[in-house]
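Ticket #213: bound-state structure for FE2/S2 (inorganic) cluster.
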Amino acid sequence: MAQATVSAGGMSRREFLFYVWGASMALFAAQFTGLFIWFALPRFREGEFGGTFRLSIADLPPKNDPPFNRADGRFWLVNLDTRDSNVRMYRASDETEDIVGVAAIYKVCTHLGCIYPWNETNERFECPCHGSKYRLDGRRIESPAPRTLDRFAVTIKAEDGTILAQSDSEEGHFKAVPIDDILAQAAVIEVDTGDRLDGPSQTLICDLLNNCP
Ligand code: FES
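RESOLUTION: The complex was predicted; output attached.
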């Protein structure tokens, strides 16, 4: 004759174990859902790398001057104009259009990820790790870097928050944002460090000759 399996509370041992198992699974599912939401939702706040940085229009350097360093955002803010050609910002022979406007350049070298400084003497970015060099707008001018420096999305706003101009991506790269026509109303430059695009790759003569430094 089978033994009685009903407890004093009216619940069998099997039922009890089933409820314990169900509760465990529910707890696991709740934890999993919580973790999923934690990873899925953006956790970056304004002013943190990965989020949006708000700069005053006064932070914008004069055209073709050395870049403004925003260290906590890991970017350089540059004001470019090849119409006013100089050693920092010249129009290269393969560039069919002038480069005019504002850009935010990622401070990580496209070769192996070193942080590179602006070299005041040579008036260009120079990576200390393996010697890659870049023009003021981030264009690669010496290897072994495989491409031009990456850029973040830039938005120019008026004092009341009205958007005056935004980064335009062309062939997957952010172009400089022209600012001449809106300078009188511009008050804020927003740089979204969560929105980054690669700089274009370019073939250098030394790439073809396989003798890049
Ligand atoms: S990491 Fe910059 S040149 Fe290698």
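RESOLUTION NOTES: The radius of gyration is 27 Å.
TICKET STATUS: resolved
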